[in-house]
Amino acid sequence: MEKRQNEVIEIDLLELFYALKKQILWIILAAIVGGTLAFAGTKLLMTPMYESTTTMLVLTKETTLSSLADLQMGTQLTNDYEILTVSRQVLERVIDDLNLDMEYEDLKDSVQISNPSDSRIMEITVTYPSPKLAKEIVDDIAAVTSEFIGDKMEGVPPKIIDEGEVPDHKSSPSTMKNTALGILLGIVISCGVVTLYTVMDDTVKSEEDIEKYLGIPTLASVPDRKDYITGKKKKTKKSKPAKKR
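== Wzz/FepE/Etk N-terminal domain-containing protein ==
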């Protein structure tokens, strides 16, 4: 019984393979349409975003830069500074300095802060539709953060190592990636439709289908001779008589 079930599965997979092969042109067309729509949507509907990054160094004392205690304290302070950098007081001051038409939450969502493990380096990255404003925003955030931390924590403010640069290329969206996803989505949808149609199609097409769906053996079959139904008989070629020598 198990062997028979395996044979049925193999037949179904083979039937599905031939169904997909038969509709290969429609699948290719769906892939082209999906890729074209994704490409056009990326170019016309999505706003390009640009990233600019500045780097800051967290210090505990200006005179000690290499002691182990200073390094450990600086690493701990970096975690605190990450929170203070995106605090409301800092970002609202940046909004006022640059006259940005956005709320505090919107600016906070565009700021990313990273800290390499076991280091006192803090990287601030701003993502914005304008490459020039992306640089201005990240530079102002670094300056305001350094001043704010120096005033509030009464310690050595973080030092700005690298200022932001005006990006030449957009960081997102990726036209190539979205186009590839559109092509893949077109293939998946078209193959899904063909698979669903094949699975739902229970029409009898052969002797095997009769036994498969009805569970009864086939005793005989009548050939489909459409030429007799239409009254058109196939002309048989008469063999030419052999030439007499």
